[in-house]
Amino acid sequence: METTATYIPMPRLGEKAPAFTANTTQGQINFPEDFKGKWVILFSHPADFTPICTSEFITFGSLQKEFDDLNCQLIGLSIDSLSSHIAWLRTIKEKIQYRDMKNIEITFPLIDDIKMEIAHKYGMIQPGESDTKAVRAVFFIDSEGTIRTILYYPLNLGRNFDELKRVLIGLQTADAFKVALPADWRLGDEVVLPAPGTMESANARTENPGKDVTKWDWFFCTKKLPKELIEQKIFQKK
After folding, report:
1. Nearest Cα to 192, choosing from 223, 214, 226, 229?
2. CATH code assigned at 193
3. Closest among 64, 229, 208, 71 to 143, alpha carbons compared
4. What is the structure's pLDDT at 221?
5. 20 in Cβ contact with 121 (< 8 Å)
6. Given CB 3.0 to 4.6 Å as the disulfide criterion, which of 10, 86, 132, 134 pairs with 124?
7. What Rg value do the Cα atoms of the chain yield, rounded?
8. Would you call 232 exposed, middle or buried from its count of C-beta atoms within 10 A (0-12, 13-18, 19+)?
9. Per the residue annotation, which of 22, 29, 53, 147 is the catalytic one?
């Protein structure tokens, strides 16, 4: 008699991140309870001791302080065992030099998910890619535990870390200043003002756009937002 696999719905933007308890290379974590008040990047990789994943982890490790300064906790996951994780991370620190990065110690948690429970809960197992390996998923979860952005990469393509940082800074900037961000926005570029909600406000914007505002049309206005102002608001440099 055939059995039907249990359907687990994919997490969606704007929903609370699914909760879980897990063993990691930094001890047991209760997510998201242990990370209240912090942003989290929860990401998966296909397997330990593989070249693309190694290049990604050494890059994550080298950038950890930048994520710390943005009040963001990194949490990794694969379906390997804890002993495999530990051996792999030791190898990265002791033996691997990638580009100009070496002696990189990974101090953020790496989850042991050998039963694939968390990977399935977060839609990290994509059968079209592999039934036994997690794809390169990235979940940006805000300080309230809400999923804000989801990125998926296939097994054979490493992540773009400039884009990961851009997304995190962009989300925090949009929240802090109540603005939106245009295509290819970078720190220091002009931001997009919310569209007018009434005819009166649209007319007012047309007649008096405001200081440092560029009016492309009544519904599309951009404003200067200096890099220094954003850094003062969202960066937590110690």
Report:
1. 223
2. 3.30.1020.10
3. 71
4. 87
5. yes
6. 134
7. 21
8. exposed
9. 53
In-domain check, residue 167: no
β 147-153/39-44 pair status: unpaired
Residue type for 35, please? F
Helices (H), the chain: 51-62, 64-69, 82-95, 117-121, 161-177, 199-207, 227-234
- Comparison of pLDDT for 124 and 209, the residue scoring more: 124
Which residue range forms the structural domain that includes residue 212?
Answer: 178-234
- Whether residues 154 and 185 share a domain: the answer is no
Same domain (yes/no): 99, 153 = yes
| Whether residues 33 and 115 fall in one domain | yes
Cβ-Cβ contacts under 8 Å for 186 (sequence gap 6 or more):
166
Beta bridge partners of 42: 75, 139
- 86 in any annotated domain: yes
Structural domains in the chain (count): 2
Predicted TM-score (pTM) of this structure: 0.90
Q: Is 53 a catalytic residue?
A: yes
